[in-house]
Amino acid sequence: MIITLIAIFCAGYILIALEHKIRINKSAVALVMCGILWALLSLAGHDAQIGTQLAGQLADTCEILIYLIGAMTIVDLIDTHGGFSVITSRIRTRDKRRLLWLLAIITFFMSAVLDNMTTSIIMIMLLRRIVTQQRERWIFASLIVIAANSGGAWSPIGDVTTIMLWTRGNVSAGPLMYGLILPALLSVVVPTAIATHLVGKGETSGQASQAVGLPQGVTPRMSRTILTTGVAGLLFVPIFKEITGLPPYMGMTIVLGLLWTLTEILYDRRRDMEESIQNRVSKVLKHIDMPTILFFLGILLAVGALQSAGILTGMAHWLDKHMHEPFAIAGLIGILSSVIDNVPLVAACMGMYPVVDAATAAASADPAFMQNFVADGLFWHLLSYAAGVGGSLLIIGSAAGVVAMGLEKIDFGWYLRRITPLALAGYLAGMLMIWIQHLMGW
Description:
Helix content: over 70%
Largest sheet: none
Number of helices: 23
Order of helices and strands: HHHHHHHHHHHHHHHHHHHHHHH
C-alpha cells in the first residue's frame, strides 16, 4: 500500500510539472490525485478513523484557503482601481544601474505584503515601458523574480509557504521577520550587485515617467484610498493574530468585510457612474483565480494523505538518520524548490516534522537537535527562507519565474547560464547570514 501511494503521488506530480506539455490543468490532476489517495487509505483502513483524519486535514487546509481567497480579493481590488500605479508612476530614473537597484528594492518590499506573482506582473509591466531592448530587459526581469521570491520569504503574508507556516503555528510574525529580513535582503543585494556589471552604464531607451491612466470612472483619490486601506488591512492581520490569538483567516475576513463596506460607500456616492464600470467586491470576486485555490486544496490534502499513512514520518526518520542537520535538510529543500513546487515541499516538511514543545524537545534522545523544531525554531526559519529564495535558482522554480518567463519569453538556458549563478550566490549568502545570526544568538 505504501509503495502504491508514493507511486500515485509521484505520477501525479510529474503530470503537474508537465502541465504545459500535456495541456491538462494542474488543478484537475491535484484534485484527482487527492481523491484517489484518500480512497485507497479508506479501503485499506477503518472508515471512521480515516474520516476523522480527513476532517482534520480539511480543517487545516481550509484555514489557508480562506486566508488566500481574502488576500487575493484585496490585491485584485487594489489592482482594478489602479492603486499600484501610485507606486510605479514615481519611478522616473533612466540610469540603468540605479534603475536595477530601485526595481529590486521596491519589488522586495512589495512582495512582503503582496504575493510574489502579483508583484512580478506589476513590476514587469512597468519595466516594459522603461526598457525597450528585450535581452537587456531579461536581466531586469530576472532580478525582479529574485527580489519577489526573497521578499516573500521573510514576511508571514508574503508567500503561500510562509502563510502556511504562520497559520499552522510553526512560526510567528515578529520572530520570522526579525530573523529573516537580513538574510532575505542579502539574497537580493548580492545578485543585484553582480548584475550591475551585466547591464553596464548609461540610460535606458524607454520613458520611465510615462503616465499610466486610471480605470474608467476611478479618481486618483479613490485609487489612493483603496490602496492605503487595502495595504493597511493586510498589515493589520498579523497584528490581529498577535493580539487575539485567533487564526489569521479571522483577521482577513474582518479586513475584507471592512474594505467591502468602504467600496460600497464610495460607489454609492458616485451616482453618476455607470454600474457596468464599477469594480465592487462582488464583481472582483468573480475574477479570483479559483483554479489556483483548487490546486492548493488538492495538493495539500494529497500531502495530508501521505502524512496520515505515516509516509512523511518515515521520510523524516530517514533524514534524521542520514543528515541530522537542519541547515543540510533545509538547504536540500531549497535546491529542490527550484524544480518542485514549494507548496507541497513545505507541506511535506510540516507533516514530517510536527512542532514540538520545549518540554518534549528537552526530554528527547537528542534535545539539541529537537530544539530546532519548536515553534519559531531554527528549522522553520530555514525552511521559510530556503523554500522561497531557492525558487529563484531556475526560471521555472516559482510562480514569479513562470510569469516572467511567459511575459518576457525568457529562455530557460539563458537564465540557467546568466542568472542561476547570481541567484545561487545570493541564496548561499543568505544561508550564511542565518548561520551567523544563529551562532551569535540573534
